[in-house]
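Provenance and format

Records in this collection were gathered into a single text stream. Each protein contributes a sequence line and a token line. The two records reproduced below are adjacent in the stream.
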Amino acid sequence: MVCLPTLGKLRCMPRYPLVTLATVAATSGQAATLNPGRNQYKPMPHGKPAFRYSLPTSRVPMKMRSGLGPGNAHPATVDETAGDGHMFAHTGRTPLQTRESLMSMPTEIRADFDTVEIVDTDRIDWIASPAGGVDRKPLDRIGGEVARATSLVRYAPGSDFPTHVHSGGEEFLVVEGIFSDEHGDFSPGTYVRNPVGTSHAPSSKDGCVILVKLWQFQGGDTAPVTIDTMSADWQSSGQGVECLPLHRFGEEEVSMLRLTEGGSHQIPGEAGGTELYVMSGETEANGAPVPQSGWARFPAGEAVTLSAPGAATLYLKTGHLKGPISGPATGAGS
């Protein structure tokens, strides 16, 4: 049950699949019952986290609907930057909006980098992009027509995306299927970094899903990277833990991590923020479950302990969330 304040009282209702966003406060004693691993949560003063639940619009009181503004943009209502630099929106109930209507659309998704975010991406709807057969699930975003963005992108069999230049760099991990461009074919588990100024024309013959990060390269980070994590040599990093370093620049580190039952991996608060995506199995991050295909982000200054009830493999990035985080400058390329 989810309890929402209406006219000074609490109104309780069953939980529903996600369509729109409401914010519900819960006491710390309720936190374990409400399962923060399947609902995004945000630390609040005095140990009272605020859990974000997703409910059908018709079930959200009108006063609460009016509060769904840019600061609370929901993944089921806003797409990341489109291929031509425009943002598109989809509610699951209405068709894609026209470009003329985009001016009033939110341009931020999970853009408060001082909060903890845990997302079950299987509960987010795919959103069509302007390129036929290419759909997206935005995870975080800052920007206008061009954005700093993290997304899952799905290519239908035989689909492609127009040639484009990476003005802010592109980092991706193949989650499912075979991703292709003029540089080759990339199988599941392949990690790629395309630095600022590179370009390609992506496609997929049989369909694929990739985790993509745009406009997140530091100045001077110009090394292209392509690593097949399925065939690479992993390193033992303690009992029940294996690690595969993928990239390091300054304080930023990217790696793949394998955990087995009983294994634990510690990330100190000084690491400068933590972001992860679960490729297989289920992970626990500071005690909160993150399911397969789940994505989580912890702010700089927060220590993170990762463990797994069984075997799990995850993408892990640390040290990239220090200092103010903003989108591309106005007028920047795609």
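Adjacent record:
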Amino acid sequence: MLKARFDKRADAKSRFSVLFLIVAAGLVGHTLWSQNLQQLSGRLPLRQVPSLQGIFFDNSRIILTGERGFLFESEELGETWTKIQVPSSVLMTGIFRDQADQLFIYGHESKILKSTDSGQNWRIVHEQMGEDLPLFHFLRLDSERLLALGAYGQLLLSQDEGESWTTLDLGLQEEGHWYDALVLEDELVGVGEFGSGFVWKLNGENLFEFQIRDYSGSLFSVLEWDGMLVATGLQGSLFSSMDGGRTWEDRSLEDSRSIYGAKVLGPDDLLLFGANGFLRRVTRDFVSSAILDLSSRQNISSVLALDEGSFLLLGDRVSKIEISKESR
């Protein structure tokens, strides 16, 4: 199931497939935006295929995760799609490109699959069959360790390039659902439900747990933005930290829609995306200006960066959107 299904305080975080193409360059001066929308739903092999995340190779190739163990591949930036069969029938929530040809996909039943040939062939390296234990994020801690995290406090560690996995016990007091994490220098910063998170030294010497003041909803994402940490959450909730996650400042927007994530466009520009067509640019001083508000109720759940400053946004409809701008 999806993240929202594991957070009673969260609104429904729909994770159905969508493809947008956004063409952008440096954001300077006053910007004029124009857009073209082209529906691509009918080009996928199945009528409705939930898709959560994707990866983009250094050409026109894209791989998206899907429901019932399907992966979808395009060699033409989404113009046509083919299925890649994998040995799984559960929803795969994400995909991680670790090295040139080494990929991992992860999802429900705590399932992790590995490929060493750029996604053509896959094998299961971890699973708990029959258990409703989705994994939500996957990352490399250092040259020797990989980490997967998810619902019910799951923190899975591999020290052999993903061939085997064990539980990582950080001694956390709060072990709710962990939605996102990143490595910041020599520390791991994780965020999850109830406005909670942790900062853990990678050498294991120190652990700091935090609870954002006056906020008890989910934190869906965390990212580093030119020395600043930014976390996103429910109903326009947005927070920043200048001390590596020890303290947080409320930067919330006057918008009732949830913010599922963000993508750095540059040192002074951040792209926020989320529920019901929420797509906004935020400047360094957190003055928000709308780039695109979709008239429909479609959700945007993930952003995939392409070359030439363009992005794929994944949500609940398959479309191609080209946005051009001129500065004056």
